[in-house]
Amino acid sequence: MTVAGKETPRERYRAQLRAEIKERAWEQIATTGATGLSLNAIAKQMGMSGPALYRYFASRDELITELIRDAYRSLADTIRTAAASGADLAVLGRALRAWALDDPQRYFLIYGTPVPGYHAPDDITAIASEIMQALLDAAQPTGKTVVTVEDGHPDTRLEAHLAQHRQWAAGHPAPPAALRRALLFWTRLHGILSLELAGHFTGMGLDPAELYDNELRHLSQ
């Protein structure tokens, strides 16, 4: 048995190899996308045989799961650190964009086109839920500004819908107005980020940061 905090040389070597395999996987994803990820190609790059590499990751899906888990954990930690300082939605939104711009491939792995045939395990869903929980906390009414909307307004109709369909909030007690703010924050900002990172604003003669900040201002009201 390994004493806590004291890895054996074999364990350290295994951890180093797994880390290098993941680095090679990210390089491959940047070139071919997640659907083109090949463990045999990574093994060849590292001077290993395919069977040798499979001792560290038993399948392509296991490797993808590890990469997705790392990505979600990185974003969850980023959002949680910002939230711990009392950040509002605007600050969390800027933290999200900075994280995405730092490594677009990492962003696209978890928010881009799903990998055909791949299904993430439950623990990854739980990590993703941590991010939404932080957003729901930040979306709560502060008492500084009270925004009311009349019956029949699109926001009112959406709030009524979310009050009955709140499974995605994972038990968070946020009122319907906070559910709406958090959900619109998530969908609108991801829409802009996805377009920006995919290069769809190139040639339009505008600054995506200004568009993003404009959305943040509206969502933070």
From TrEMBL:
Transmembrane segments: none annotated. Keywords: DNA-binding, Transcription, Transcription regulation. The keyword DNA-binding applies. Residues 15-75 form the HTH tetR-type domain. It comes from the Bacteria. Residues 38-57 bind DNA. The keyword Chaperone does not apply. This is TetR family transcriptional regulator.
